[in-house]
Amino acid sequence: MVLFNEDPLILVTIEVVDAKTQEQIVADLADSVQINIEGNDKDAIIDLTEKPSTFFTSHYGFFTFAIIDDHQISPTNPVRITIVASSEGYITNSIPITITSTQGETYTIALVQRSNPPEGSVSTTKTEGLTDSEGAVKEDIVFTSDPESNTKTEVTLKVTQGTIIKDEEGEVLTGNLTTNITLFNNQSSESLNSFPGGLFANVTDRTGESKDVIFIPAAFVSVEITDESGKNAKTFDKPVEVSLQIPGDTHNPETDTTIRNGDILPIWNYDEEKATWVYYTEGTVSGPDENGNFEVPFAVAHFSYWTAGWEDKAGEMCEEGLTIHITGEFTTVEVRILKQSDGTYFSSLGKRVNSTDPHVHLQKSPRNIPVTIEAWYGSDIVGSVNVDNLCGEYVNLEVDIPGKEVSFSVEVYDNNDPEKRMRPNRGIYIDENGSRKYVGYMKDGEITVYGLTEGIEYTFWVFHEDTWYSGTHLVDERSFAEIEFPVEP
Question: Could you tell me if 254 and 367 lie in one domain?
Answer without folding.
Answer: no
